[in-house]
From TrEMBL:
Keywords: ATP-binding, Coiled coil, DNA-binding, Nucleotide-binding, Transcription, Transcription regulation. Residues 104-131 form a coiled coil. This is Fis family transcriptional regulator. Residues 145-375 form the Sigma-54 factor interaction domain. The keyword Oxidoreductase does not apply. The keyword Coiled coil applies. It comes from Calderihabitans maritimus. Residues 6-48 form the PAS domain. One of its GO terms (biological process) is regulation of DNA-templated transcription.
Amino acid sequence: MEDNFLENLVFLAAESLPIGILVVDEVGKIIYLNKAFQNLAGIPNEAVKKNINDVMEETLMSQVLKTGEIVTKIIFTANGQEAVLEERPLFHNGKLVGGISLLISQEVRSIQMLKHKLSLLEQEIEHYQERLAVRNIPDKHFQPFISNNPKMQEVVKLAERVAASDVNILITGETGTGKDLLSTAIHHKSKRANRPFIKINCAAIPANLLESELFGYEGGAFTSARSTGKPGKFELAHKGTIFLDEIGDMPLEMQAKILRVIQEREFERVGGTKPIKVDVRIIAATNRDLKDMVDKKLFREDLYFRLNVVELHLPPLRERREDIPYLIRTILAKLCHRYEIPAPEIDPAAFQMLMNYDWPGNVRELENVLERAINLAPSRYIGPEHLPPALRDGMPVGEMDPKGLLGMMVDNFEKQKIIDALKATGGNKVRAAKMLGISRTGLYKKLRKYGLLTKVYTKK
Ligand SMILES: Nc1ncnc2c1ncn2[C@@H]1O[C@H](COP(=O)(O)OP(=O)(O)OP(=O)(O)O)[C@@H](O)[C@H]1O
């Protein structure tokens, strides 16, 4: 009973396979052939008990039975398609007792090939995931914060330590000190790194729109609302991190709503009644003195303590001047990569000015000053004349402009004329040189001098 059942099961399985199966005994007499073999080879079931050589021209079964070796060849099926015929010996207790022919159609082969390709792709994905994991090594994220300043080093150490936990963080510091950059680094080092990182600048959004931006709205919540409704930033940040920039500018009533999200982990959309559960980590930032705002009742004390579980204070640039050389190098490298130009040299006098300046706009201001300088500097050289007047103030006149103001004006004029000519000719250098009345080699020299060689121009 049991044996019969198993036999029937094996038979059923063989019949339902998309691969043709034919079994012969030790002299080549067909014992069994499944439906797929009958269809593919065009051999009826009546072939059973006949010798395989009598019903199938392409078979090499005699050779298999003689040598005990597997043979494979491509044949054409009954409907003219290519198929693989694989014939194998069957052994029992070490003795050859028969053979099996497998007929695999193109269709099945292509599925197998797809499976193979899929597994290759999976391997490739794995490979890239590993490479990504390497790229995401924690320290890389904090690279912009490499610092020689003890206070800054403390902050970075603390940031790295708390990044992995889920605590809310308050980043304080003057404008342009890198609060946004630090929040991004923390998110990418946290266990939420593969989840959304949603930023919102509370000061940039009008108070009446802030609630729907943060919490979304239901369809028809107000006249101009989309009929389908819209998720807010908190919903979008589910399982990830939300960065509330300029939190000090958040109106008091909105502060109460943020507090509720932190305490109860839920909120309602504008015009909605159904509470929505969220799991978000909050990183807030401000350049205002929140403690003072709390004292003046402009910021909720309870929210302040909820956000300020860990405070990371980024010192202003003037208090860590020792970082300026490193920042100049990294920012110039970034800018030159963007503009596709070689890194310029900095004149010692210009460098001194960069070191002495007070940087009220901090790293952002330094970035702007350097970007302006490489655009003004006609060659691979940044001199005092390429820095804004604010930085040059107080410098003795003689030292101020070693290259000469006239030379700078001439260079700038020449550079502009070359750009105009290239624009007018759609980037055609031969025609541009003609227009300017100089040789092609001369033009190339000047293009190199002004860092214009790799720029693309389209006709005006
Ligand atoms: N350590 C650093 N290394 C390189 N670039 C930096 C560094 N810190 C800040 N920057 C750059 O300075 C600019 C300002 O940084 P960021 O926007 O993070 O400052 P912020 O404190 O958030 O400013 P704000 O308060 O005005 O929003 C950015 O372009 C950033 O890339």
